[in-house]
Amino acid sequence: MELIVLALAPVIVIAAYIYYRDKYEKEPLGLLAKALFAGAFIVIPILFLEQFLSIFLPNFTGLSGAAYNAFVIAAFSEELFKFVALLLLFWKSKHFNEKFDGIVYATFISLGFAGVENVLYVLDGGLSTGLMRALTAVPAHAIFGITMGFYVGLAKFYQKEKKSYLWKAILIPILLHGFYDFILMSGINWLLTFWLIFVAYLYYAGLKRMKKLSGQSIYNTDYNLMNKTFDKDGSSNI
Question: Which domain holds residue 199?
Answer without folding.
Answer: 2-233
